[in-house]
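Run log // design_07
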């Protein structure tokens, strides 16, 4: 079973891990890897949003214009496991 990295919830990770054949060590390693992949993808998305904020600030945007980006960062931070 090939598992691709994606942003997942803890419930989705638990469901995938429960289907892993083998010992508890193998399941624990799979869970750790899935959580790391998910957090890495979320961190990349956060970095993209922060770079957009820096770009817009350099162009002279006001805080009102930056609100959607700050909101997106907050949503992404809530997805970190």
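design_07 sequence
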């Amino acid at each position: 079973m090939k598992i691709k990295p994606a942003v997942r919830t803890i419930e989705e990770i638990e469901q995938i891990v429960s289907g892993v054949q083998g010992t508890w060590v193998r399941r624990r390693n799979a869970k750790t890897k899935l959580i790391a992949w998910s957090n890495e993808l979320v961190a990349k998305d956060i970095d993209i949003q922060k770079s957009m904020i820096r770009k817009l600030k350099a162009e002279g945007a006001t805080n009102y214009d930056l609100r959607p980006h700050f909101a997106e960062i907050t949503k992404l931070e809530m997805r970190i496991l």
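Residues 24-58 form the longest helix (35 residues).
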